Amino acid sequence: MEIFDLVVGALTTLFTPEHFAFLMLGVILGLMIGVFPGLGGIAGLSLLLPFIYGMDEVSALATLIGLVAVIPTSATFTSVLMGIPGSSSSQATVLDGFALAKQGQASRALGAAFSSSLLGGLFGAIILTFFVQIARPVILIFGSAELFMLAIFGLSMVGSLSGNSVFKGIVACAFGILVGSIGSAPATGEFRMIFGIEYLYDGIPLVVIALSIFAFPEISELFRKESAIAQGAKLGKDGWLSGVKDMIKNKWLALRCAGIGTIVGAIPGMGGSVVDWIAYGHVVQTSKDKSKFGKGDIRGVIAPESANNAKEGGALMPTLLFGIPGSGSMAVFLGGMVLIGIEAGPSMVTSDIDLTYTIIWSLAIANVLGAGLSLLLAGPISKLTEIKFSLLAPFMIMVISFAAFQATKDMADLWMLMLFGVVGIFMKRFGWSRPAFLIGFVLATQAESYLNMSVQFYGWQMFLRPGVLIILALTLLSVYFSRKGTVDENAELMAAETKANINMLPQLLFAVAVVIFVGIAVFDAWQQSFLGGVFPMVIGITAIPFGLYLLYIFLSRQTSSPSVFDAEQAVAEGTFKATWYEPLLWIGGLYLLSMLIGFVPAIIIFFVSFFTLKAKTGWLQTALLTAAGVILLLMFSSFLNLELPQGVFFN
Amino acid sequence: MIKSTYLQIITLSVLFLAAYVLFSAFHKKDSIADSKGVINTDTQIDNNYFAGKTIEWIIPFKEGGGGDTWARFNAPFLSKYLPGNPTVVVTNIPGGGSIKGANLFAERVKPDGLMILGTSGSTQMPFLLDDPRVRYNYADYKPVMAYPNGGVVYVSPDLGINSAAEIKNIKNTPLIYASQGPTSLDLVPNISFELLGLDVKTVFGFRGRGAGRLAFERGEVKIDYQTSSAYLKNVTPLVASGEAIPLWSWGMLDANGQLIRDTSFPDLPHFGEVFEMMHDKKGEGIEFDSWFATMAAGFGGMKLVLVPKQTPNQIVALYEQAFTAMKQDPHYKAKKKKAIGLYTQEVGTKAYKIFDIATNIASVEKEWCKQFLRDKYNLNI
Fold it and tell me: With an 8 Å Cβ cutoff, is B234 touching chain A?
């Protein structure tokens, strides 16, 4: 009864016109910022702070929460429409969301995504309303041993996402883990695989990897096809309604994933970047018909989207109760709280419990507002997918470059984007599971540092802890289910492929390159101290036999093996109108020019040249499109005070 | 056809570039220093100097962390109390434990007061230890403000001691300390445990002191420290409920640079006193001096606001007046303690004194610290 009163109290405070207006302000700002991939709460905080001063506590909090809550919501736009993961928690949405967009069902995917966000956010708040009372002790149960086991559980999702070739899946995942282990070793601080490059000391940022592995290959493919994103029959303007209906049909799935999101979000140290993959793995494992996943199954959109909004609610728990941010945007939220003058800590469940409930329910209401507004926009915005791609491409290239550069504000962000973009292109072309790579990358540091900690804290007795055993059982279950079928985005192409005359060389070369990289990682680990090198060494040595076996398959031309696949040779003649490296020349040229004369002048020349040569637009259209792009870029960067790459000769 | 395509590209590019050059010339921040950093002495520095200008405050840390919050708390007051009310923007450039942002500052700054750097103990530490990645030099800068900080070491009641007076009882108790990394600010606690002769094993890889505190609350570690404000917020409730026993504070520096008890924790002995309790002799010699140097860099002068040395004194004076004036602001008074902590943001001679102690280390002490890192963690710097 007491809880009920507190909730009613919180809602009454929130629905006073003033507070509600501030919440709305936060929501609108959050939606605008969230649309730009890679920005998230970072830009939001600097934007909001001037307003926050002088506001009363509740209004300031409402604004802040409105902003934080809806960033994963509007990040969905680019994930679905362009295949660009809008935030770290909407990576999995890209798999089926963008596939649907390519089939002309963007509005349906968006409808399902936003209604799932709405439901997930609301359900998350309901769980939290009760959970907050017992959250402190529950969170404390998760020691380093349990966190290590959770990272392993996350890795077990690879099983369901690794594609038809188990070998490639395993090597892809190990490849991701090893790329994730570049930088300082968690256990000793030694630097691994930095090759003397200062940029690599901190490791490669997740934003850059996610953009390069998912967005870059898609952009390059569309570039070469020279068509609009949407290819199939378009859905009418009420397409988003059918998406909402899809969500209602799968409401139990959405609720389950919201639960998963809340719990994973509440565990400090797990981080939000894996929650969408766990939800995605969950839906794959529990579905009877798995054939459509990765090729446009609406459930593949509903699961991650209901989880990622609920996650922010869960992440509130460690933030409020322990002062430890549960996610990237929560770090910003915590900073904002401090400036408002609210102290996170144990008092949030005792003397300040009313404030906690206000925060939880502000989050819920913000989710409803954010998802509602986004639903209204879903129909019109999904028209973007019908635009001729050559008109859209420069904008997308600008957006991913801008987003990647915000990761560390270093020109190397862009070169890494391109380098791993090429890796992504080949992984896609040769049917290596990109989700497996990304999950490995995301969980590498967590798995390693928690393993190191728990071995030092508990010794091998860590495996006797009840929490560890429970998560271990869940992991085994997940592995068991993953053996019943796996997502393979290329299954159809693979069936169409005539393998008898396939030229094995390209995929052989790529596999050799990956194996060499694994070898370098092992060699590098060999030179570190035991604690600094043991993790990448074990991963590398485990992966090498699988890699070598792959090479053997290619060399002995076992064309019946599911490991053999080359999309380039499987697609119909004439699908691609440009060579595979032409997009790289354009983008590489843009970056080279940026280094010389700065990003803005470079993008001007890039836009003008691209539209004139590729889109073959006339004077007026080229001028207008270029002006639109440059003004958009300048407005965004000056409004949010963001940096752009500066050139050597001209700033 | 081909000709007209290229004509279109060239004409439009030139037109747009020209427009952009005009636009940026129009928006150019007028600086009293030219691109080579030479000060144009003709420019009058008066109360209108900052009017209509933008000050960029480089923070080499992530959004939302301690360093970021500190700067963002100060920024609006700085804007309000600098004559001419310039816009003050906080630019976060995280990376390499703050080395990256400080390097970038060193590369870009001009002595015009329009770009300032906010450093922290973790910016000082790699500089003092000659980290090869460091390309900034404190000798090239001067402080416009210095903000000291402190920290408190506490243990679990399981150890069976009630205060630092019983420190000898835990001399042989094996303990684990949850640390961020050997060359982070944790160098201070790690050296402290070594000097006391405590049997502490350090486990690295924790992300921030908050994660270490969580490990303490979970019972995974029995000894921990938090900086003053984090201690007050999150550990005092544990002390009240008997789940944590405070032992000592790092102490603070008095006007002469001597180690005294932290005024925020007058009841707790400072580290020097605990050293005496343990060894029955005063802390002195190279080991203790090395500890003192790292403590002064990490805590005594934890937060510094820096400008290049050549910056005209009039500009520095404007900053000092602003940092002094803001202390009377009712909003500052009301929020300061919760937002950034209890200590005083110092300017002028006091700031210079703190700056000197925090950014200088004798070469023997430096060698001692490096040797410590080599022997203890197998780390070569």
Answer: yes
